[in-house]
Design goal:
The chain has helices at residues 16-29, 68-79, 84-98, 111-114, 128-145, 170-173, 175-183, 192-202, 219-227, 241-254, 270-276, 279-297, 343-363, 388-406, and strands at residues 6-11, 56-62, 101-103, 150-155, 206-209, 231-233, 259-268, 302-309, 316-326, 332-342, 368-369. With 407 residues, it is α/β, with parallel strands linked by helices. The chain folds into 2 domains: 6-237 and 345-406, Rossmann fold (3-Layer(aba) Sandwich); 241-341, Dihydrodipicolinate Reductase, domain 2 (2-Layer Sandwich), CATH 3.30.360. The chain is globular, with a radius of gyration of 21 Å. Bound molecules: nicotinamide-adenine-dinucleotide. Nicotinamide-adenine-dinucleotide binds at residues 11-12, 14-17, 61-64, 104, 106, 109, 113, 116, 156-159, 192, 210-211, 236-237, 239, 271-272, 343-344, 346-347.
């Protein structure tokens, strides 16, 4: 029997994380790199029969005209993480994926994202219903062209502007209202990430939101997923500073050492840093970064998270965290840590894990949110557990239950 084939449709397909992931997946396939960083290769997940990386077919949307290979050259020049020999070895694969990357749209993403688009995006001018139809046509053509068994849409696009009104409109809660927003072209009531999610979920495909943008984080889209018997999860990949927060904050709780303040100072360069330099787009990120501390230590904990753009750093982010806490006899003490990581190198394997687990859950007939994937996200949708240790246990328990059923 032929292997199953999974399609992955990437939003932001030529961005830093996506490019790193696509170079990586081909490098692993050719034996040029190990699978280090991939959670799905850990036991017991490696016994589940997750889709092999070589059976995933890639396509997606972008808003910039650069080729995927040139984007990879850019990432290598800035970070030195990919290696020119590896890029040469995977050029044919990157060129072939490049032909499957089409123009997306930037509806309500904010001016700073609009400014990234270096040419006119036709989909931006379509009425919403027609935009959905066009996206769905792109997805279906891709599925048919490659004889795919299923598809997962993966959001790796730039962080959208934070728009609080999107959490207040009737279409946030009600699927009926959401259909109406689309049919009556109420453009101010939906952002690109949610429109993309609507198109994918409506076809019964999966949706994963690695960004802090709203995406499928609405009860209406969750209802759509469940009605179409498919799954989704987000949001905002947990890769660095917040990963540390979700490990360290529970420790203070366990030792009954109240945290008086937690201040985090992040500096980063590259395009992601440039987008997050815009105060409205930055708000989306700050919201999800602070949530972990407040959920674990309580709302009263004083937090201050700063994100600053320092162009020369490129994708090498530095986070300095200063944690002020007290112990016995109310003695005040300080923990400081410095995290220095290459953002895309941290994010790319997790994106691969999420595609594989989301596809697996669909094969298991699971619809709606996927709480067992909480450990991958800063703001896991529908999950109240924020400690990394407990979140990881959710994933282990999930896998063990699946393996037991199989035995
Ligand atoms: N460690 C990490 O890198 C990390 C962790 C958590 C979340 N994220 C999020 O992942 C996303 C990608 O990060 P990155 O470093 O690759 O950024 P990037 O700027 O390199 O890539 C984003 C890509 O999306 C494209 N794009 C923007 N809006 C689009 C739209 N509406 N439709 C299609 N394409 C669009 C851009 O042109 C760009 O190529 C960001 O939202 C970031 O906040 C990254």
């Amino acid at each position: 029997m032929a292997n199953r084939k999974l399609g992955c449709w990437i939003l932001g397909a030529k961005g830093g994380v996506s490019t790193t992931m696509l170079v990586g997946v081909n490098a692993i396939r050719k034996g040029l790199a190990s699978a280090a960083g991939l959670v799905s290769e850990n036991a017991p997940f490696n016994q589940l029969g997750l889709i092999p990386l070589e059976d995933i077919v890639w396509g997606g949307y972008e808003i910039r005209n650069i080729s995927l290979y040139d984007s990879a050259l850019e990432v290598e020049a800035q970070t030195g993480t990919l290696g020119y020999a590896t890029l040469n070895a995977v050029k044919t694969e990157l060129d072939s994926i490049n032909t499957e990357i089409k123009d997306g749209l930037t509806l309500n993403c904010g001016q700073v994202v609009d400014d990234l688009a270096d040419h006119e995006l036709q989909k931006n001018h379509l009425p919403l219903a027609e935009a959905v139809q066009t996206i769905q046509q792109d997805l279906q053509d891709f599925v048919e062209r490659h004889h795919l068994d299923h598809l997962v849409m993966l959001n790796l696009a730039s962080t959208e502007a934070f728009q609080p009104h999107l959490f207040e409109v009737p279409s946030y809660h009600s699927l009926e209202e959401l259909h109406r927003v689309i049919q009556t072209d109420q453009r101010e009531n939906i952002a690109a990430s949610s429109l993309y999610a609507y198109a994918a979920l409506d076809l019964g495909y999966g949706y994963v939101n690695f960004t802090p943008s709203i995406g499928s984080d609405t009860p209406a889209l969750d209802q759509l997923a469940r009605e179409r018997n498919t799954n989704h999860m987000g949001k905002d990949g947990k890769t660095g500073e917040t990963l540390m927060k979700s490990v360290l904050a529970p420790m203070f709780v366990m030792r009954n050492m109240p945290v008086l303040s937690w201040a985090g100072f992040n500096i980063l360069g590259d395009r992601d840093g440039q987008i997050l330099n815009d105060p409205i787009n930055k708000q989306s990120k700050l919201k999800s970064k602070d949530q972990t501390i407040h959920e674990i230590l309580g709302e009263q904990t004083y937090t201050k998270t700063m994100i600053e753009y320092v162009p020369s750093l490129d994708d090498w982010k530095t986070a300095w965290d200063h944690i002020h806490f007290k112990g016995f006899l109310d003695t005040k003490m300080i923990l400081q840590f410095i995290w220095q990581g290459c953002d895309s190198i941290l994010a790319a394997p997790l994106a691969l894990d999420l595609i594989r687990f989301t596809d697996f859950a669909k094969q298991q007939g699971e619809a709606g949110l996927q709480p067992h994937l909480a450990c991958f996200f800063k703001s896991p949708q529908g999950v109240e557990e924020f400690s990394l240790h407990h979140q990881y246990q959710l994933l282990v328990d999930y896998a063990k239950a699946k393996l037991k059923i199989r035995d």
